[in-house]
Amino acid sequence: MENNYLLSLLPRSITTPIAMAVSVDIGGMPTMTAIFVIVTGISGLILGPMVIRYLHIKEKLARGLLLGMGAHGAGTSKALEFGSEEGAAASLAMVLAAIFTLIFAPILTPLILM
User: Fold this and answer.
1) Which residues cross the membrane (predicted)?
2) Is the pLDDT of residue 46 over 80?
């Protein structure tokens, strides 16, 4: 049962529907994964702009990538408030994270559980 929680936590950094599908593929619990994804997204949405301000991140690409990877769809929405370049970078980060997770999660999961 402990591995189920770990497997449910692994795909938390991508958008919810894809994370739930990956969770099923690797043996996790999709409902737990959905909760982890939502908590991660909300945390990233709150903390992302604070990190940007605290670290004085001025580069538009860096802002967008930070929000897209850290807060998924909510972060992409927040990135669009900063500007269109930030929004595009956030969208790209979110899509690339989903693609890489779909490809590599089933391959790397057995190595993590060793």
Assistant:
1) 31-52, 92-113
2) yes
